[in-house]
Known about the structure:
The chain is of the alpha+beta class. Helices cover 34% and strands 17% of the residues.
Amino acid sequence: xxxxxxxxxxxxxxxxxxxxxxxxxxxxxxxxxxxxxxxxxxxxxxxxxxxxxxxxxxxxxxxxxxxxxxxxxxxxxxxxxxxxxxxxxxxxxxxxxxxxxxxxxxxxxxxxxxxxxxxxxxxxxxxxxxxxxxxxxxxxxxxxxxxxxxxxxxxxxxxxxxxxxxxxxxxxxxxxxxxxxxxxxxxxxxxxxxxxxxxxxxxxxxxxxxxxxxxxxxxxxxxxxxxxxxxxxxxxxxxxxxxxxxxxxxxxxxxxxxxxxxxxxxxxxxxxxxx
Length: 275
């Protein structure tokens, strides 16, 4: 359940007014940024005020859960030291562009940057998984092409549950904490999901695309949580096999110089995870 408590409502300014699913005026909401209320120029993909992606929907109606995706570039501190600030700045800009293009395409909303990663929220669990898979594929293709000049490996954690929306668009709650802890159990190239998310999308994804990691202990949480590794290369390959040639959402895959589904990258889909 998305919640905004009474004291938070009283502090909202006109610029920070919540979207219509929390009781705001729906006028122009189809174009206005759902977080800050800015009305962007026609054709803009991102809000010129807060930089978040503009899509047709944000969070589900009250009483429904949200899906939270955390991303993180593995060993970013070491890479900054090794590559230098200017090279790292260029890499971060390219990485951020990849993530933002995909979250826009899959109706995700950028809550915030976390330094070398993102906190993103989705209404639909499948949108979150497809977005995560395509980000991994694009990052892997670019890393394979550029080698030591672009040594980026991203780990991801996905969880579904209740969130609390704060003024200005931030979110918090146990679901957010869980997604961050789940991400920490993976390594570069992996997408680790909670049992709640796996059950939510299980009827849409074959069992072959999951690796059951069992119940793992998460830092700061009292009980163990069952988690699954999402085999995203195999999943994307299965989606590509049923797409019509030239389908837009898979356009970067067919005929690419680097095949994102070769044996090396298939092994990435089953990347090792922390115990």
